[in-house]
Design brief:
This protein has six helices and ten strands. By secondary structure, the protein is α+β, with helices and mostly antiparallel strands. The protein has one domain: Alpha-Beta Plaits (2-Layer Sandwich). The strands form three sheets. It has a six-stranded antiparallel β-sheet. Strands 2-3 form a two-stranded antiparallel ribbon. Strand 6 and strand 7 form a beta hairpin. The chain starts with a helix and ends in a 21-residue tail after the last helix. The N terminus is likely disordered.
């Protein structure tokens, strides 16, 4: 069973479980204090390729939502020329496997979680739930990238620690799992801890 089949299956996804996704907000404090993991202000939604024209529509909707959230929450900062600049930005990427990403950059973690939740719920509301795969959060542990992956179908998190193009540190991932127990809804089946090689975050 592949990454897409296992994360998604053939059943329709329910509305995004806010309590489970937003658990990352408080868990990040524990991860930084106990594991020296610092959130890198880069997180994203990954989904399989959409019909022609739909990806652009989803991206435009996400940008409009981020702009609305920023203006309503005063989540803006001054740019180099003194003009206001959004603390949250949205980037679009297609990875080496053809999966599409909307990456939210900057801002605080709570605002980012709200943006990711809105993007995911928007896909579900538009009848595109079958395309939705996961939300991915990048952390830094010193000079090492570490990721936490939230699978929408299982509504669970797991860690992913790449050490090379197609290598990962399983021991570090298990240590992170131990740190996050009681903080995050963790994926209990290790065979579902899928690698995200070349993640554009």
């Amino acid at each position: 069973m592949g990454f897409l089949d296992s994360l998604l299956g053939r059943t329709r996804l329910p509305p995004v479980n806010e309590d489970r996704l937003f658990a990352m907000s408080t868990a990040a404090v524990t991860l930084e204090a106990s594991g020296d993991l610092r959130w890198a202000q880069r997180s994203g939604i990954i989904f399989k390729q959409l019909p022609p024209g739909r990806f652009r529509q989803v991206r435009d909707d996400a940008v409009a939502m981020v702009r609305h959230e920023a203006s309503s929450d005063d989540d803006v900062v001054g740019g180099a020329d003194g003009a206001p600049t959004l603390a949250l930005q949205v980037e679009e990427h297609t990875d080496e496997l053809g999966f599409e990403w909307l990456v939210v950059v900057g801002g605080d973690l709570q605002s980012t979680l709200a943006a990711l939740h809105g993007i995911a719920q928007g896909l579900i509301d538009e009848g595109l739930a079958d395309s939705l795969l996961a939300a991915v959060f990048r952390f830094q542990q010193g000079d090492r990238r570490t990721y936490w992956v939230y699978g929408f179908k299982q509504a669970t998190f797991y860690p992913f620690v790449p050490t090379g193009p197609h290598q990962r540190d399983n021991g570090a991932e298990l240590r992170l799992k131990a740190l996050a127990e009681g903080e995050l809804p963790l994926e209990p089946q290790l065979e579902r801890w899928f690698a995200l090689w070349g993640a554009p975050i």
